[in-house]
Amino acid sequence: MRRHVAGHVQRGLVGSLGDHTTLAVGITGEDGRTLVLRDGADVQVDPGVVRLFLDTGRIPVVSSVAYDSGGGIQYLGAVPAAVALAAALQADLVLPAGAEGTFPATAAVVDMSVPHAVLRHLYRLDDSGESGPGTALGG
Q1: What pLDDT shows up at residue 104?
Q2: Contact between residue 95 and residue 81 where contact means Cβ atoms under 8 Å apart
Q3: CA-CA distance, 55 to 51, in Å (whole number)?
Q4: Exposed, middle or buried: residue 19 (CB in 10 Å: 0-12, 13-18, 19+)?
Q5: I need a labelling partner for 84 at 20 to 30 A (CA). Which of 23, 63, 96, 137 fits?
């Protein structure tokens, strides 16, 4: 599962963003112990690594592979990972990969399974086709 989620899927998303910007970077929930799955569905988040990327203008693409409370590796799922990260970061924008969930009320949610919607939001393209810089995530 790790190879598929963190390798194939994440590389595809980073590559798609890379066609338009050099700012995308891929990480997993393992990196910096960003995501730790506790008992049941409880997710502990340390957003430090993600914040480092955001603070330097990067677009973090976070795979939902996490440590479990015993130090093993677990697939967390896109929705729980996105919800937990969005809450920890007080995100303005959440880009889940084709998933719906309960995100912070202030967050704009853009479906990553629709690449043109993501790019339109990131580059703030309006109907006239004019663009301006956008913000990927942050609080």
Answers
A1: 67
A2: no
A3: 6
A4: exposed
A5: 23
Residue with tokens 């093993």: 72
Cβ-based neighbours of 25, under 8 Å, separated by 6 or more: 14, 53, 58, 59, 60, 61
Look up residue 26 and give its two tokens.
């891929």
pLDDT computed for residue 65 by the predictor: 87
- State pTM to two decimals: 0.67
39-57: burial string, b at 16+ Cβ within 10 Å, e else: eeeebebebebbbebbeee
